[in-house]
Amino acid sequence: MAEYKGIKGFNIQTVSSDPPAPFAGEVWYNSTSATVKYFAVLPAAWSTGGNLGTARRQVGNAGLQDAALCFGGNVAPKQQTEEYNGTAWTGGGNLTTGRQYLSGCGTQAAGLAFGGYKAPGVTLSADTEEYNGSSWTNGGNLGTARYTLGGAGTQTAGLAMGGARAGAGTYAGSEEYNGTAWTGGGTMNTLRYRVVGAGTQTAGLGFSGYTPTTNAVTGATEEYNGTSWTNGGSLGTARQKAGGCGTQTAALCFGGIAAPGTPYTTATESYDGSSWTATGNLNVGRIQLAGAGTQPAGLAFGGAVYAGTTGSTEEFSLGGPATLTVGTD
User: Fold this and answer.
1) Whole-model pTM?
2) Of 100, 94, 52, which is closest to residue 75 (Cα–Cα)?
3) Is the pLDDT of residue 193 over 90?
4) What domains does the chain contain, in order, with CATH numbers?
């Protein structure tokens, strides 16, 4: 086997501590830890995680990449809840009110579920439920029952935005939850449903969706300050039925569809508080998926693919500079 000197023309340097400012591709031997290391700039990428126990779409979502919550959806019955630990999904407590096209926010141990509908074309839901890590209990109802709405925030400081009201039309308003009841918030500038939410109640983000006024998908992004919405930078790929996660200044948008008849997209974009930038694509293009986590460590799960409903889960890494260990003595 060829030695490093024979390949590169010089030996690996031996140091007692890692270089403070290595360059991309630099290799060294750390005598203190007895390890060979190198410095690289890793690309942003999605990797495969553990599949949902029950494939589904149109779900509610909450939590982090290694502590996520998936609930409801088009499964039967529609109360099913699953919890993700960074490797696998396991069953949690069932929702009190089964529904799909609902939204959610919070954490795995303190989740919030709201809105949706209980059966296609039958009953819109204003129901709100709170999760304690094992079971759901009823909270205060939304002021306006609707589905395909966006969600952000926490169990005691939630934010609901946009959505559809069936025969009553699309809803541009937002509502804020205080752990007991919902109150009216600011009105979004772009009327839409199938909107994706991220961030907090006082620093929220709403993006993508479908606008009935133009009969088209939208890439419009709006930022909420706890009182009113202002326009941010538009998505590079306008879309609906997408997933997302993160904060107002560090969000991800992934999947969805750009126009009727076009392929389900794998496109992923990252937001920095002013503009969106294309980043590593999903491995599985899909619609009606859900997201959890942060921009550096996002999670995509469930959704619809052309072959039907999927339980596919993917984990996002933002990449960037990294010192990697390649061997030990």
Assistant:
1) 0.90
2) 100
3) yes
4) 4-42 (no CATH), 45-317 (2.120.10.80)
